[in-house]
Amino acid sequence: MPKLPHVSGAVAIRALERLGFVKIRQSGSHLIMRRGSKGCVVPMHSEIKAGTLAGVLRQADVSPEEFITAL
After folding, report:
1. CA 6 vs CA 1, 27, 51, 59: distances in Å
2. What is the pTM of this model?
3. Would you give the distance in Å from CA 51 to the centre of its chain?
4. Residues above pLDDT 70, as percent of the chain
5. In sequence order, what are the beta bridge partners of 22?
6. Can you list the alpha helix ranges (DSSP code H) found in 1-71?
7. Which end of the chain is more exposed for a tag (fewer CB within 10 A), N or C?
């Protein structure tokens, strides 16, 4: 598994949109995205830590390789 980069919330959202996710709603500093039956909650922080990003990708059922390619 490749090492996940430190990215901002906006960059992570752009990459997930390239993978087919759409913005559903936002509650405070967290954005909810969905693709089919899979969804994820992306924090709108200036930098998302690697462990948090791994959790978001697990929720979204996206592999780290797919995510890095979409960046």
Report:
1. 15, 23, 10, 18
2. 0.92
3. 12
4. 99
5. 34
6. 9-18, 50-60, 64-70
7. N
